[in-house]
Amino acid sequence: MPEGILIRGIGSFYTTRTDDGGEFVLRAKKKFRRLGLTPMVGDRVRFTPGTGEEEGWVEEILPRRSAFVRPPVANVECLLIVLSPEPAPDWLLAERLLVECRRQEIDSVLVASKSDLDGGALAETMRRDYAAAEAPVFSVSARTGEGLEALREAMAGRLCCLAGQSGVGKSTLLSALTGLDLESGELSQKIARGKNTTRKAELLFAGDLRVFDTAGFSLLALSGRMEPETLRLYYPEFIEYEGQCRFDECLHDREPGCAVTAAVLEGRIAPVRQERYRQILAEVREAWNARFD
Predict the structure, then answer these.
(1) What is the maximum span of the chain, computed from C-alpha positions, in angstroms?
(2) Same domain, yes or no: 25 and 75
(3) What's the pLDDT tens digit per position in 254-264?
(4) Chain centroid to CA 47
(5) What span, in angstroms and rounded, lies between the C-alpha atoms of 163 and 168?
(6) How many Cβ atoms from other residues are within 10 Å of residue 158's Cβ?
(7) Residue 220 domain-assigned (yes or no)
(8) What separation in angstroms does the CA of 135 have from each of 23, 63, 95, 140?
(9) pLDDT value of position 219
(10) Same-domain status, 156 and 28
(11) For 84, 207, 255, 291, which has the most beta carbons within 10 A of its beta carbon?
């Protein structure tokens, strides 16, 4: 039975691409609905090709290595978290995305877009604050071409997805990276928020690049209900201080004798990382306490 990867879905029809570049239009069998399983762009599937003008069928969805609900994409291997000088960076969204990447074992990359607007100042801030976050920082400009080749090299051979708030130029950046003519919106001068121009998920191929063109992520909530005790495990800077706090179950919040807080005060961890961690921890606690409501 042939295998392929789902590259787009429209209604109840899915297009799959085989490793040799062939494309087939398929429908999902009813058994997936009974199983509570919906095919996602990025899924590896086994399928039966159609005959004549009839569509084929998705027979099996192979195990996913990762999955996002909104947008519904699967098997992301590298998430590019895009921020820009304008609109002002949504740092909490970036933090949530970094946590989700660690939780799902997805590689993460921080991208300072529109570097021509600030001379690379945003990238320097990201390198300073996230030096120990295990997420390399790239300074790029779709307008001037700065940094695009280095970013392409980092993306090559991996199933990638761009994420970030509206208006940071994801579609424009994606066009510049792939050479494909993708629609992009103009930034609203009134409220400095972008128009979300990407309406569906699609997997694009351009040379060595495989990258999702998708909307979403601008209002990411951490998937599932996470135990508050586990959040600290998704912050690489905190790991070396495990077991050094006064209390065994220290959440690195405001407990006395916290080794992470001491490291922040001594300049070994960026203060903004702990500050944003505390904000997300409060959200996680609230969701956890309300899980039975």
Answers:
(1) 71
(2) no
(3) 999 999 999 99
(4) 28
(5) 10
(6) 16
(7) no
(8) 35, 26, 11, 16
(9) 54
(10) no
(11) 84
